[in-house]
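Duplicate of #3305? Posting structure anyway:
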């Protein structure tokens, strides 16, 4: 049965590799980056001696061809002499909110941008009180690009389909601001209209250095498929000069990295066939079957029946809800293959070769993930991988239990499993172990919180080290790989016993390696470079740590205070 599962896995890997080649070609086609300046933010530099028209002309000389405008508010529109709604229809308490309601775009600002030979970009905001439609706001305009802001679903919860149709009829491309996209954006943008946007806000520009801002812009384009950079200026007396220097340098950096400045275009619509996805899913099920055999002795006939049943269920789910099926199987692969990488490795003198063999299991998982999470919506992150916390926790727990049970696996009967569970349930646990468990729980909480953006603050020292590694290696490897996971795997392979704690640390590197490829909006080449750098540096760090550990162990062998040195 193992041979059959291995054959299915190989066929699935071939199908996933074909999909990966398709995706690689699509990623290489889209190399145009659009620079968009915030018209209102840059207006701080205008005055009698430097009117807005002159400012736009200077920006165009710097290579900027797009300027974004926000909607003017009812209060601003009324102040210019335009008629407003009947305030008596609204509660007095709502009047301040009413004056702040967006009511479309100032035609004078649009004309100013067009006259300067630039493309107008519209920042479309939802309404809470005024019953304005998107069609009314865009009346008479031919938008080059629309960037929805705010919680669009709150402004028109029952009309998101209408908004999508209106923008499509206007020929507008939709900017998707990364990290904090507006609610309902996935129902407004589509694979053939959506373009990823990176914006550094005015508040951030007030505290960032020019080099830090440039690093963020370049990283967004190179590593996250961003094709529109939304630019706020640096504030202060020297803000214009500093911003102009940044724009010049940014254009040069993008060009040097193989990109060109121009009007950004969406990625071409791409979606592999359902049959290809089903073949890839069979490989993931084969990996799950191999992992089950590490845990339980399953008769071949029963395992075959279970595999066929799971294959049929996967095919049915693919027909009913393709997106959900892709996300479920991707999560399964992200859990199964890192565990296989650590569970299937053994100790020996040829540490380097065994290290590579372990990594090949994770490599199989990441290829299958590339295959199953395929399609343009994943490339622009309209939809994404689900279950990040679970994929970071489940492999660690599974590997720890496998290390704890050791030679008792695979289980051959229910009675054996019951005896093992009873033994551990009735075991006396010293207080020191409970304290260690509490400490491990705190470390685990920090570990899980660090898997998401903007949950825990990143120390400035770590930011500096990250940017230094980027400049040195082009792509920064993940710290949990080079400092925790891969060194722990080297130590595990070189030691004489499979310690559960060491196995749990080792699997962190493997699941991080696989997790890199669940970020489908990151180009494959960037992910491969990051992975290879992490493996090489992590292996070198592991050898240094193991050599230092062995030397310290020999020196402290007779000292009872250093019992921890006797673990392996």
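Output from current build:
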């Amino acid at each position: 049965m193992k041979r059959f599962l291995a054959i299915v896995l190989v066929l699935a890997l071939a199908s996933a590799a074909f999909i990966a080649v398709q995706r690689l070609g699509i990623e290489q086609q889209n190399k145009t980056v659009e620079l968009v300046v915030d018209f209102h933010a840059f207006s701080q530099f205008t005055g009698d001696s430097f009117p807005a028209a002159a400012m736009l002309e200077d920006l165009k000389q710097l290579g900027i061809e797009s300027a974004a405008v926000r909607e003017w508010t009812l209060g601003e529109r009324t102040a210019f002499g335009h008629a407003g709604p009947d305030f008596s229809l609204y509660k007095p308490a709502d009047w301040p909110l009413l004056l702040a309601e967006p009511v479309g775009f100032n035609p004078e600002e649009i004309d100013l941008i067009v006259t300067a030979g630039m493309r107008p970009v519209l920042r479309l905001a939802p309404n809470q009180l005024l019953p304005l439609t998107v069609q009314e706001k865009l009346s008479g305009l031919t938008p080059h690009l629309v960037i929805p802001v705010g919680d669009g679903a709150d402004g028109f919860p029952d009309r998101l389909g209408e908004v999508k149709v209106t923008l499509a009829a206007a020929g507008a491309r939709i900017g998707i601001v990364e990290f904090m996209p507006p609610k309902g954006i996935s129902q407004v943008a589509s694979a053939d209209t959506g373009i990823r946007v990176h914006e550094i806000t005015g508040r951030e520009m007030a505290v960032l250095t020019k080099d830090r801002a440039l690093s963020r812009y370049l990283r967004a384009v190179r590593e996250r498929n961003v094709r529109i950079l939304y630019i706020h200026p640096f504030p202060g007396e020297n803000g214009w000069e500093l911003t102009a220097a940044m724009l010049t340098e940014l254009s040069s950096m993008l060009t040097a990295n193989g990109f060109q400045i121009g009007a950004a275009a969406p990625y071409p619509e791409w979606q592999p066939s359902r049959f290809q996805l089903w073949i890839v899913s069979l490989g993931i099920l084969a990996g799950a079957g191999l992992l089950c055999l590490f845990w339980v002795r399953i008769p071949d006939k029963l395992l075959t029946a279970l595999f066929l049943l799971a294959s049929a269920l996967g095919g049915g789910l693919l027909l009913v809800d393709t997106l959900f099926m892709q996300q479920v199987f991707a999560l399964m692969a992200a859990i199964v293959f890192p565990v296989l990488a650590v569970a299937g490795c053994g100790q020996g003198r040829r540490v380097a070769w065994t290290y590579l063999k372990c990594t090949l299991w994770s490599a199989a998982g990441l290829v299958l993930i590339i295959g199953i999470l395929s399609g343009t919506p994943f490339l622009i992150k309209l939809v994404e991988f689900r279950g990040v916390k679970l994929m970071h926790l489940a492999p660690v727990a599974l590997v720890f239990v496998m290390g704890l049970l050791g030679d008792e696996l695979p289980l051959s009967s229910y009675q054996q499993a019951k005896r093992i569970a009873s033994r551990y349930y009735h075991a006396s646990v010293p207080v020191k172990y409970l304290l260690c468990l509490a400490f491990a729980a705190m470390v685990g909480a920090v570990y899980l919180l660090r898997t998401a953006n903007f949950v825990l603050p990143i120390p400035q020292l770590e930011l500096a080290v990250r940017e230094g590694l980027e400049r040195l290696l082009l792509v920064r490897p993940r710290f949990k790989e080079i400092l925790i996971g891969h060194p722990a795997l080297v130590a595990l392979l070189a030691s004489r016993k499979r310690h559960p704690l060491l196995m749990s640390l080792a699997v962190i590197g493997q699941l991080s390696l696989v997790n890199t490829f669940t970020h489908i909006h990151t180009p494959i080449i960037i992910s491969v470079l990051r992975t290879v750098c992490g493996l090489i540096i992590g292996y070198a760090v592991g050898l240094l740590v193991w050599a230092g550990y062995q030397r310290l162990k020999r020196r402290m062998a007779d000292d009872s205070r250093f019992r921890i040195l006797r673990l392996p």
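Confirmed duplicate; merging threads. Residues 564-568 have pLDDT under 50 and may be disordered. The radius of gyration is 28 Å.
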